[in-house]
């Protein structure tokens, strides 16, 4: 899919109008961004906006995220455990210290 | 603006000075008065110029900042209206847009509109003059025509500015504007970097295919026990090229990554700019509301003074009755003595605004009572 983000008032209006008249291509619309179908037509719409608004339009291609593929079990377990922590004020670094959960630095250095 | 004080008296319930008269000449037709109705005047041959008028119209539409700021689609620029406005507002105050439109249509810059016979299909249209003798406007161009291309609140806000009111958020708006100007926006253009990655990628694809083909040929020659030297050299060369291309791709990808990181900072700035622009737009809306409120009492009493079924609403920018009259009344508050061009035939399709009777009479009544001359088109 394509993620289109805009950075000016004119581009925002154009994105809104484009999304309104091409609802079939729009997967999701936010205030200043939209997710378009990953088709040539979606790309056409996005590129049309960029042709008109240049650097005020950012287009990124997204891919589905599968946590069972992209990261190992330790990351998933750490996330679940941290979400269910007893004291909400505990930062993750403190939470992970002295446990089997990976520390934040390790996580930061590991690309998906 | 200089006669603001006098006009304030004139906009009261009693008219203290005469509405300035206008004299209009369109070709052979000559009319004068305080309300000059030109709706029945045949504009031939001005209308009959066909493509030349269309070209004129479009050039005005693109060059006129007021029309591009408003919604151009809802305000189709009638070339006749533009021409009359052109005559009322002297060229010096109208500035660049009109000079540009003249240059494009080949009109001379004298005080009358003449058409070059070369752009006109009919032979008899050597020259068609439109001349208007009237008080020249010194107020905002927003007051030149009715329907105005903005809301009544927006119109009243401009009226308030003409009368010297200043919005309390004015200084804040100015400060935000200065900050906006300070934001320096480098171009975010990664297209070259992306193109490079794609083209090197395509090269690699081609080279891999070529290598595979050569390998196939090599195998075939081995089976046939033919000479393989030349083919082997070819494969060697292709593989060298491939490895060079792969190195180039790594470099191109690194370049793109660097450019992406740099673009992130540029986009942060764009984001700041957008936030500021939104903030300014909100402040301007607030200013319009405040300014419109400042003149609302005057607007209300002006409407009350009119013998027409029109009255101000409880909130600034609201009114009840014919919109045309409300707008003329608002404009009169700015001290305008120059003619207002009232466009369209309000008798058609305006039953909803509650005018009831003949609005044409109302317009004439308003013109007289408010001291503003009117040209109807």
Mean pLDDT of chain B: 76
Number of helices of chain A: 6
Name the strands of the widest sheet of chain B in spatial order: 3-9-8-5
Largest sheet geometry of chain A: 4 strands, antiparallel
Structural class, from helix and strand content of chain B?
Answer: alpha/beta
Brief overview, please?
With 112 residues, chain A is an alpha+beta fold.
How would you explain this protein's 3D organization?
The complex is a heterodimer of chains A (112) and B (377). Chain A is 47% helix and 16% strand. Chain A has 112 residues and is an alpha+beta fold. In chain A, a hairpin with a 3-residue loop joins strand 2 and strand 3. The model of chain A has no long low-confidence stretch (mean pLDDT 94). Chain B is an alpha/beta fold. Chain B contains 12 helices and 9 strands. Chain B has helices at 4-10, 51-63, 65-69, 79-88, 91-94, 96-105, 152-162, 170-182, 191-224, 229-304, 323-332, 359-370; strands at 22-26, 29-33, 35-37, 130-133, 145-146, 311-312, 319-320, 340-342, 374-376. The chains are: A alpha+beta (112), B alpha/beta (377). The A-B interface holds A 7-9, 12, 32, 54-56, 58 and B 185, 187-189, 263, 266-267, 270-271, 273-274, 277-278, 281.
What are its keywords?
heterodimer; A: 112 residues; alpha+beta; four-stranded antiparallel β-sheet; 6 helices; 47% helix; elongated; B: 377 residues; alpha/beta; four-stranded parallel β-sheet; three-stranded antiparallel β-sheet; 8% strand; disordered N terminus
Helices, strands, pairings?
The complex is a heterodimer of chains A (112) and B (377).
Chain A: E1 2-6, H1 9-21, E2 26-29, E3 33-36, H2 40-53, E4 57-61, H3 67-70, H4 73-83, H5 92-96, H6 104-109
Antiparallel strand pairs in A: 1-3, 1-4, 2-3
Helix pairs in contact in A: 1-2
Chain B: H1 4-10, E1 22-26, E2 29-33, E3 35-37, H2 51-63, H3 65-69, H4 79-88, H5 91-94, H6 96-105, E4 130-133, E5 145-146, H7 152-162, H8 170-182, H9 191-224, H10 229-304, E6 311-312, E7 319-320, H11 323-332, E8 340-342, H12 359-370, E9 374-376
Parallel strand pairs in B: 3-9, 5-8, 8-9
Antiparallel strand pairs in B: 1-2, 1-4, 6-7
Helix pairs in contact in B: 2-6, 7-10, 7-11, 8-10, 9-10, 11-12
